Batch of 3 targets.
Target 1
Amino acid sequence: MYHADREIRDKEIIKAILDMCDIINIGFFDDEYPYVLPVNFGYEFEENLIFYMHHATEGYKNKLIENNPKVCVTAHKFIDHIYNDYDNSSHDYRSVMAFGEMEFIPRESPDYKKAWEILCKCNGRKVPASVFFPEFKVLMSKIVCRPENVIGKAQRHITSVEEVPFKIISYPEK
């Protein structure tokens, strides 16, 4: 990392950044170019960082997961046209990047219900009863990332969860 002073490894700070984010981008291995998809998500970060997401039962992404389950996940929050007093720039950001392996969660698994609960909680929704009907044609997946493969970064050095929310300051008078 070019700006090692901006690196974040603290689990609680990374969770606070993920709590700000609505979308993650998942990068898959493909033949000639990476294949990147934005998805909504849920997560938990205890021993490992685990992302949960739902998707169609068929499609290109499923083929890619079966061919190579290793993925890269990014999440970010960016704000522009503000003044920040720590480097006098007009923007600020928080981001998380993680590497892990993606796998399908079988409907019969106890993790299936748990995954839906976490996903919906992170999205401020209730779990729809329909997701447990046999005719419901949506897959649930998870990406498991070991802590050493998870890194955060911010515009400035952040040392506590309290510093994660953006501090918006008006431009100084000239």
Target 2
Amino acid sequence: MQKTYRRIFFWGIFILFLISTPLVILHSKGYRFDRKRGIFVYSGSITLKTIPTNVRIFINNEEQSSKSLDIINNSVTLNGIRPGTYRIRVAADDYLDWEKQVEVHSGLSSEFWNVVLAPQNPELKEIESQKTARFFPSPFGKKIAYFEDLEDKLSLWVTDFKTNQTELISSQDNASASKDRLENLEWNFKEDLMLLPVVRNNQKDYLIASGSQALNPVYLSEISRLKNISRARWSPQEKNTIYFLAGESDWGRNNLYRISLNDNVSQIIIPDVSTYDLSQNTIYYIQENNILFKSNLEGGNISQVNDNQFTNQSVGNGARLVVYDDDRQALLSQTGSLFVHNNGNENFFQKIADGVEGVQFSDDGKKMLFWTSNEMLVMFLRKWEVQPYRGENEIQNIIRISSPLENVFWLRDYEHVFFSTDKKIKLIELDSRDRRICFDVFGNNLDDFPAAYDADNGYYFFLRDVDGERKIFYFILPEKTGIFG
């Protein structure tokens, strides 16, 4: 009898081995049994890369164990998911939840590389300021310039961001800051000199001042002895050099000038310029024919960039040129018509929108953000090879609202956009799968407020009312985490 039992036990184990081994192999290969269909199906996966990184992940409201998460390169992968539709939720303490409906396909991974959670109550910090009308952080985040909202008087202040100490730089009578939201105070690349667009004696002008008071404040019209000045910009390479357009009274045309504060000598470097833009070592400019040219910073080595005209119609004296490189440019006419040249797999040259108020290229040049008073859109300048896939020259509407859009900025990942409306600072993602998630980051107490975003450090600056005075505050998003922030 014992011999018979041993044989039964042996063959039972052997049969179980024959049955279980294929199941184990199939499971290890990613196959899962579908009870509804009664067959084995090849599973898929979901990959997420999140900010913050310490999150909890739920699938159909069931929290996933940390043991089931495959963590590689700061991303999280959930393997072995049967094909189908799932509700996935990402949560973290003190943050708003991110939630989407996700399609999982056999043998494929559904990838979400830019999941950003907004803080529920961002920590606000105040910067020393008073009666602020507008403000302008310096390029490396060391200083903030602002001016007071005073009648017929311009008071320019600078606050040291590290010490929070404020110093009065200039107080000018019979002058006011320019109301043009597209032309801001500009710091030079050394963070020590400023150009502030102003209106003085009913004429547009620029106040030149030093953040450390190393230079007595002076107007550009006074040192250049020219009128009808516009589009003043600091040189990207010489800290004391300014480029600007000025009209000649007898011809009524604009020339591009260059002046050095070392000797206050201005010179025409390119005549008959409608508008221009500067890169690290190049001047891009358009003349009356609306064809793009470029030169070096001295106005030499002139060459034609494009064979086509942006348009055969006048773009107006207020037109703005925004250049990423020789292959990617945008021209915004005075009336808000947006013309784009994108030389990728095909040479795209086209008017794409009217009523446009602003344009921003992403840092890698693969996207271009633009907006009207009530609508925000993105144009993809290069084919996007990762999920969500996008085609070259594809234009997507990000959001359309009835209230005016203000303070539009790329987040540092260039997959999210800040904007403000109805006293709220909002953050919206570009990924349109299922829906675009839009967070209310902060509710302000001002109807209309200027803001600025320092993408390198993640500082979002804005004005907020405190006892009847407009003062500068900021919060950090994304928040710095980990050893390297």
Target 3
Amino acid sequence: MTANPALAQLEFLVGAWDMELSDAAFLAEPDAKALGSVTFEWAGQGAALVMRIGDAATPAATWIIGRDDAEADYHALYADDRGVSRVYRMSLRDSTWRMWRDTPEFSQRFTAQISAEQAEISGAWQKSVDGGNSWEHDFKVRYSRRFPA
């Protein structure tokens, strides 16, 4: 369990997950799927949650998730092997996981549903290049917990 009570709600994420990306313009074929792996682990004895994406099939990315205990939402720092770095807001309410980033040049938002047994997460990313005035589908993603956890 995390030592930071502000992150206790994220405990179910800790472990290894399989990832499937689909319906993405950046994949070679419209119906192509990219499979990868994701791990969540505590950093700093539970001070933050680290999400690592990537293996031979997918680009590497690292998310560091934390929260100011005076705020309801989380913050997520993102960096990947393309040299991209971003800051997102994040919420987890009931069975809905959301992340969003609002900037004039490139905004993104993610909404996913967490299964009742917390073993599968299915969602989609959207993007905007006009400050959030119009949105378009970016890609779908599904995370499935590996068993045993």
